[in-house]
Amino acid sequence: MYDLAKYSFANAKIRAMLSRLLHPDEFSRLLDATSIDDVLESLKNTPYAFLAEHFSGNSFNLRAIEKALIKNDIALYRKVCGTITTRRERDFLSLLTSRYEIEELKAVLRIWHNKRDVNLDEYLLGDEITHPLDYRKILACQTIEEIILLLDETAYKRPLMDARDRYKEKNASFYLEAALDRDYYVRARSLIENLSSTDKRVALRILGIEIDIENINWLIRLRKYYVLGIGEMLPLIIPGGEKITTDVVRNFYATDGVGKVVDAVALGPYARIKELVNENVAFVESFLYEILLREVRRTLAGFPFTIGTVLGYLILKNRETRNIVSLLYGKNYGFGRDTLLSLMHFG
Which pLDDT score is estimated for 262? Predict the structure, then answer.
């Protein structure tokens, strides 16, 4: 009863927002559009009408469109947070918004590490998300220690401190990125532990599948590019996965190494990974997101309204944005309908 009262205001708001997600027939029209202008024109009668207003014509910039879509998603995340009246739930949802900031920080760390001369504005949204980060100061740093000092008042200091020695030893920004991702999910799980038993159960399952996706992607990347001992690999595994746990990785790695670990994670719903990993890593990611989206749909079909409904909406909205971005870039490259469909995830 408490959960029903807690979400009484959010229920109607989130259900309304769910109803505004694009329908399959709307996506079908987008797929059949002959140009990017036609795609933008088809979006005029949808919640994405702002794209047609700002970017129609021959002067469109795909990266600018992508950034506008991401900014729109961040605004919706904040709107969703505003529908929640209780602190513990708001704290958890606020953390989810920081994911966008983490992705920006990771991109800047890669640029810094590779000493690339780039137009930084192309990589940044331009708005403060969670912390007032000065990315230009980060790029001007000479050492990772200087960067950590700049991030002293943020949640990112500790994971970068933890990864510093390994980064310096291996000279690979991969370790900094992995530490930021791992810390994000650890903090998310910690906040979920404070939720009601119903919310906790639903949120942990959805987050667990997301963690599995991250861990599987890391394992595939490790198998392809790095040779690591078990002592180096285990700290990179994000705890809290639904199927892929540190015990699974430890048990199989001990005898067969990372090559067999990828086979070992092909458990239960992930069984197809074994055949897909040798075809195309993108196929693996697509398959994993199908599993996540199926779980989201199952949660949305349930009753009563829980934090899972909120999470479900945010995941679907994020996936819709990615689908639109993939479609626009695909149209720009002249991809046909079947190729475009292979780039998208509908669940």
Answer: 58
Handedness of CA 66, 67, 73, 76 (dihedral sign): negative
CA distance 72 to 177: 25
Contacts of 270 (CB under 8 A, 6+ apart): 212, 216, 243, 244, 288, 291
**Section 293-301 average pLDDT:** 82
CA–CA distance from 170 to each of 106, 138, 263, 331 (Å)?
17, 21, 26, 39
Task: Report pLDDT digits (tens) over 1-37.
Answer: 455 567 877 888 998 999 999 998 899 999 999 999 9
Classify 222 as helix, strand or coil. Answer: helix
Output the domain CATH number for residue 56: 1.10.132
The domain total for the chain is 1
What is the reported pTM?
A: 0.88
Residue 83 maps to a domain: no
Please report whether residue 331 resides in a domain: yes
In a domain, 72, yes or no: no
Range of the domain at 41: 1-60+304-347
